[in-house]
Amino acid sequence: MNTTTKNTPIDFQMVTRKIKDSKLESPGRASIREIKKLIDDIEKATGEKFVRMEMGVPGLPPTRIGIEAEIEALKTGIAAIYPDIYGIPQLKTETSRFVKLFMDIDVSPEGCIPTCGSMMGSLAAFMTINRCNSEKDTTLLIDPGFPVHRQQLKVLNQKMVSFDVYNYRGNKLKDKLESILSKGNISCLLYSNPNNPSWICFTETELKIIGDLCNKYDVIAIEDLAYFAMDFRRDLSKPGEPPYQPTVAKYTNNYILTISSSKVFSYAGQRIGMLVISDEIFNRSYPELKKYYARDLFGHSIIFGTIYALSAGITHSTQYALAAIFKAANDGKLNFVEEVKEYGEKAHIMKNLFVNNGFKIVYDKDEDEPIADGFYFTFSYPGFTGEELLNKLLYYGISAISLAITGSERLEGIRACVSLVKREQFKDLEYRLKKFHEDHKN
Ligand SMILES: Cc1ncc(COP(=O)(O)O)c(C=O)c1O
Q1: In ligand 1, which atom is closest to the CA atom of 56?
Q2: Pocket flag, ligand 1, residue 119 (CB < 6 Å)
Q3: Which residues pair with 276 in a beta bridge?
Q4: Are 107 and 92 in contact (CB under 8 A)?
């Protein structure tokens, strides 16, 4: 903090005291939940509302069709009955239709399996994939990424390597990926697309590179589609009509998709997502699986071994909800993309407010094209690391998270999530950014 400018939008003394009380060495290095707690405390103590951009939670009401289907299902008594581990038939069929109609790919219903949020999907995938072949024991995370994936690999005590894709966009990705995959120890790689935290989206060139190299080195791509169809630069909302949600599945059969209902259907609270396994991987035999599972088949092992061990099936009623949501989308009765476009519109306005006040967008391009406006964006301010900037922004009533916890090498960067910021707060945001700029520009 400039010693000359203690006249900050949020009471300087109070913020300083609350930071001290929090016992966090540096809020700029804290986890998302720690930051959330600190801001809750400062808001309570000062009575001031922050522009809260730290947590990636939906800011919209849940998709109605899901709630109604869930209530109906509960009334029939399904709460008393264990669901099949592999999922209810209509959810499996509608998911298979969904990926056909919105991605133009063919996956049999048997490979479409419900999980407790897509987080459980990636966990189950890591657990199973890294038992297929003892020579391939390492997961590659294409960063920046969602910190929980890293955490999953850590708690599983599995090996991981990662790199920040910032300097390897377009054709440059090929040599970089090849240098890692050619070592032969990589079992799978994971990325999110659109990406949390940077909102970059891989281009077809990049997806083809990933797919081709997965074929060449027998690596499974885990494509995290938590923000399905939320690249609003293209209209991906029409079932059965191009353009489709871009996917590595166009270029390789070595893929597993994780599809979340949390953001795109605002259904985070019900914790349901889908694991979609390509037919080829589902039916593939890996003899080493027999060390852990009854069979050597991947699909059988992940369902009756891993998912059984993890949760023995997914909440019955939520499966009815997601089946109904997918069916409505597949039948053209629910334009789910339209419902979440608000995020992109808010991001557009907020990014301008930042840029007009001396901030820079860190991850700003997909090859030559400016990135989409969506759920997240990344920013920096000249002369500060992300950690320093976050610490300072607290005095201006703005909260976010540092890119340092996402595997990003852009240590100047901060991730902002637009979902919880209300349009009525834009005036406050503008005032606070302006004041910050006045206080810190050279
Ligand atoms: C990239 C990414 N993957 C997965 C998830 C979690 O999804 P779910 O709520 O379906 O577990 C998130 C949530 O923020 C995310 O950003």
Answers
A1: 14
A2: yes
A3: 112, 257
A4: no
State the Cα–Cα distance between residues 182 and 173, nearest whole angstrom: 14
368 exposure class (CB count in 10 Å sphere: 0-12, 13-18, 19+): exposed
Strands 273-277 and 369-370: unpaired
d(CA 15, CA 117): 35
Query: Which atom number of ligand 1 is nearest to the Cα of residue 273?
Result: 10
How confident is the model over 14-32, as pLDDT tens digits? 999 999 999 998 898 888 8
How far apart are the CA of 313 and the centre of ligand 1, in A? 19
- The span from the CA of 221 to the CA of 226, in Å, is 15
Q: Which domains does the chain have, with CATH numbers?
A: 12-60+336-440 (3.90.1150.100), 64-330 (3.40.640.10)
What secondary structure letter does DSSP report for 297?
A: B
pLDDT tens across 188-223, in order?
999 999 999 999 999 999 999 999 999 999 999 999
Centroid of ligand 1 to alpha carbon of 118 (angstroms): 6
Residue 192 CA: nearest ligand 1 atom is 1
